[in-house]
Specification:
Two copies of one chain form a homodimer. Chain A is an alpha/beta fold. The first copy, chain A, is built from nine helices and eight strands. In chain A, strand 7, helix 4 and strand 8 form a beta-alpha-beta unit. Chain A is elongated, with a radius of gyration of 21 Å. The model of chain A has no long low-confidence stretch (mean pLDDT about 95).
């Protein structure tokens, strides 16, 4: 059992906090700029809450689950214990990395046991502590170096954030023509399902792959937004490479 | 029970042919430029095969499941019966449309009962025939007009073909850094799973959404390909709109 300070009260802090508690770790304190969020999360985790990081309590270590751009400022203020941030892309200056490779939303329950985690730290003892912490909540833990982690995060942005944006663009297009997004849901599910067993390249279908040039031009004409026209062309070119 | 000529021997013809046979329709003939593919599919469907469309037999109607760019040439040669093509984007000049909104691959089994179909035809009797044909193999059949169908197909390209391309880019990035694509599979599954119950916009996560500008710039630096750099910027801009 570890005593943990949780910094941040967003999606990542929310899921990690619950997973830590569920396997018997103690969240000593939730620290967040947002008093409301800190209070709500702390109550659920049976922890104290604080908005001022200078009032940080003592614990075994801190997990810093805040926006990438805030990690450096926040972690520079932690003097009394080791800490790890949860970002896939921020440099490992001191402290460690505790990065869940998953898209986390507060209102969507998720079994962290199946979520891959990347851990690393310059101090090997602390890296081992982070490894055991990750193994206590997940069955899939990787110790990978900083360069690989950054590529992994970049790849995750394409696979998750950018594919979700493709869904959002599709939904927008349907909405403008009074069509229900439900009609595309089996297609989205199957597209993701196929790559469980097959490589995405071998599963590529559609006008770009078939080089149906007239259809491609018709689609670009149908798009009203100049940014979307450019996007359509770029992705089509990438598929045809 | 209908007597059907199947034109084409690719992914769509393959799945439709099997579904028609399974519910008791008769495939009279499979016609395809590729003799090997026509032969293989015809054998499975207990049908004759032919490579020359001028040797088309008589049946109730023909289903034209060929590349978009070939539909017009092929269907101009069908004089002896009504026909419908399976494309989401090709204009309805004569004949009808029998469009499955799903990504189909020969080597991946799929329950067509759950696949939405769009049917339409200028001749209302034939449209009703196509509606009943679709209902014989699917629980979700829509009669929508040509303009809506074209938008639906465009949206399907974003939701399916383009999101699959995002997976392919991710896999390429990992491969170059000796990382296993398996590590991203739970993330891809969850990203698609989330939008079953929630709107994609509300589920958007990642550096673009959080406006982690340093991370965004780092990612663009990491990408070596100029096309991918442009793609990353365009999608990031679209998310931030």
């Amino acid at each position: 059992m570890k005593k943990i300070i949780l910094i941040g009260s967003g999606n990542v802090a929310y899921h990690l906090g619950h997973a830590f508690c569920n396997v018997g770790h103690q969240i000593v304190q939730v620290i967040s700029k947002s008093e409301t969020n800190a209070k709500v999360l702390a109550k659920k985790l049976n922890a104290g809450f604080e908005t001022d990081i200078n009032k940080i309590k003592q614990a075994d270590f801190a997990i810093v689950g805040v926006n990438d751009d805030a990690i450096s400022t926040v972690s520079n203020q932690i003097k009394n214990m080791p800490f790890a941030h949860t970002s896939g892309s921020v440099c490992l200056k001191n402290g460690g990395v505790f990065y869940p490779i998953q898209t986390l939303s507060k209102d969507i329950p998720l079994d962290l046991k199946k979520v891959p985690f990347c851990v690393s730290a310059k101090n090997k003892d602390f890296e081992n502590t982070l490894f055991r912490l990750a193994r206590s909540i997940s069955n899939h833990v990787y110790q990978i170096d900083e360069k690989q982690r950054k590529i992994l995060h970049l790849a995750a942005v394409f696979a998750c954030n950018f594919s979700n944006n493709m869904y959002a663009i599709a939904q927008d297009l349907l909405k403008k023509s009074d069509l229900d997004f439900e009609i595309l849901k089996p297609l989205i599910a199957e597209t993701a399902n196929k790559i469980r067993q097959h490589s995405p390249k071998s599963m590529q279908t559609g006008p770009a792959k078939r080089r149906d040039m007239q259809t491609i031009e018709n689609h670009i004409d149908l798009l009203e937004d100049e940014g979307l026209k450019r996007l359509y062309r770029l992705i089509t070119n990438d598929i045809q490479k």
